[in-house]
Specification:
It contains six helices and four strands. The protein has a four-stranded mixed sheet with strand order 1-2-3-4. About 40% of the residues lie in helices and about 10% in strands.
């Protein structure tokens, strides 16, 4: 047992549970602040120095980030799977597009070919010529609402 000396000094501090809760709360706030600093803000570009900087950048599990290279006109997409294992680093080059290099609208829109009404009618006529009269007769019965059993009895 420790006895107070004449100066009021106690060699062992007294333990108060309220202090422990206060220290835990302060520690949790400090750690939350550190974690917020480590996580990049959404939408802000992340700059790295070269491919080595992109490879060494840590990404949270299940996330993908765009990393901009500060040394070249390159950007990287770094991804990890759900367990945190990094996926292969994807590397892209970019360059400025000037007014003279803008692609035309015709090159951007995919060409779509449609059949005209005249071509469709010609196709229907050829198809009608290729079908046999029996098939045409069955088709007419089906259009009238007759079943195959009715056609056999008729």
């Amino acid at each position: 047992m420790a006895y107070p000396n004449q100066y009021g000094y106690q060699p062992y501090p007294t333990y108060l549970p309220q202090q422990d809760q206060m220290y835990r709360a302060q520690y949790a706030q400090q750690m939350a602040g550190v974690q917020q600093l480590q996580q990049p803000t959404q939408g802000a570009p992340i700059w790295v120095q070269g491919e080595a900087g992109a490879k060494s950048f840590l990404v949270a599990p299940g996330q993908s980030l765009i990393l901009m290279d500060s040394e070249a006109e390159v950007f990287y997409i770094k991804s990890t799977d759900a367990s945190g294992v990094p996926m292969p680093l994807r590397i892209f080059d970019y360059k400025e597009r000037t007014g003279a290099q803008r692609p035309s609208q015709a090159a951007q829109t995919p060409s779509v070919e449609y059949v005209t009404r005249a071509e469709f009618e010609a196709f229907v006529a050829k198809l009608a010529q290729m079908t046999t009269p029996v098939q045409q007769e069955q088709t007419q019965h089906v259009r009238r609402g007759l079943r195959e059993e009715d056609m056999i009895d008729a």
